[in-house]
Amino acid sequence: MTEIDIKNDYESSLSEYTYILKSRSDKTKLKELAEFRKIPIEELESSKIFYIGSMVEMMIPKYIDRLKDFGLIADTNNRPIFNNRWVIPIHNQVGKVMNLVGYSPTENERYIYGKARYYRRKDSLYGLENLNLAYKMGYAILTEGITDTIRLRSLGYKNSFAMCGTHNSQFIMQQLNRCRYGVIKIPDRDKAGIQAEQGWKLNRAVTLKVSLEYKDIDEMLRHSENIPLFKEYMDYCIDYIQKGQHRGFNCGSYETTMI
Fold first, then answer.
1. Which sign, positive or negative, has the C-alpha torsion 140, 146, 148, 150?
2. Per DSSP, which regions of the chain are E strands?
3. CA gap 126, 149 in Å, rounded
4. What is the pLDDT, as a whole number, of residue 259?
5. With a cut of 70, which residues of the chain have pLDDT below it?
6. Are 139 and 179 in contact (CB under 8 A)?
7. Residue 254: per-residue pLDDT
8. Are 205 and 171 a contacting pair, CB within 8 Å?
9. Closest CA relative to residue 143, chosen from 151, 155, 154, 135
10. Bridge partners of residue 183, in order along the sequence
11. Which residues, in sequence order, are CB contacts of 101 under 8 Å at separation 6+?
12. Which is nearest to 53 in space by CA: 30, 76, 74, 35?
């Protein structure tokens, strides 16, 4: 088998394992997450999010010998890494699972990333399964966190993607630069987010900043009264970046803040 064949087989196995976990998970916990985060349950289902109660749930006999290879066994205690966490799959462009992320709002480490063999957090966007849609539409929306992107997708912005952190990546920027109009950047409002956004070097981009009282776009849009304001600004940014590209000027210097 070639390395590509091995990689495809690996991601197919991880995808099948994830599907089994999801099919066996407690469905009522998804409703709990929807109510807590104020995100429509339909979007959480579309994102294929599920819940792991006890880490024993991860010990599916067929895959026990592959869990370490899947990056789901902790090096410190040799146990599965998810316990009482919602699990968010990260997919590649063809919809196969590349990695799993466990989320808990009550733990000190809110997000735990698996260490799947072919997943490189620094060079992988969350939401790649919709990258071809962004190319078709001509623009992408870039956020820092996964829940920011899920929030935007719940409002119909399916061409949204997350950096999964404050790192920078030339490879990711090259992927997004293929959008013919450009990218709308929505960075976090904290110091780390502002610094990270400065490293999002794109050929054509508009920066949309959230209102000063909120940390990120997810927090801002959790308050439903802010949605009309956001859509108004977003429509303006989309119109600007599309018309700017048609007129042949660089949109990279444009920045606006929702007030």
1. positive
2. 50-52, 85-91, 97-103, 111-113, 139-143, 160-162, 182-186, 205-209, 254-257
3. 8
4. 58
5. 245-254, 259
6. yes
7. 62
8. no
9. 151
10. 140, 205
11. 87, 88, 89, 90, 111, 112, 113, 114, 146, 164
12. 30
**Amino acid letter at 228?**
P
Contact (CB, 8 A) for 146 and 126: yes
Q: CA 49, CA 32: separation in Å to the nearest integer? A: 12
| First and final C-alpha spacing in the chain | 56
Output the six-digit token pair for 244.
């700017």
For the whole prediction, is pTM greater than 0.70?
yes
Q: Which helix (H) or strand (E) holds 33?
A: helix 28-37
Neighbouring C-alpha atoms within 13 Å toward the C-beta of 94: 5
H or E element: which one contains 88?
Answer: strand 85-91
Task: Please name the amino acid found at residue 243.
Answer: K
Backbone angles phi, psi at 161, to 5 degrees: -145, 155
Tokens representing 124? 């992988």
pLDDT of 159: 98
| pLDDT of res. 33 | 97
**Residues 68, 69, 72, 75, CA torsion sign:** positive
Residue pair 130/159 in contact (Cβ under 8 Å)? The answer is yes
> Which pair of structure tokens corresponds to residue 205?
């981009």
Q: Which two tokens stand for residue 213?
A: 């009282």
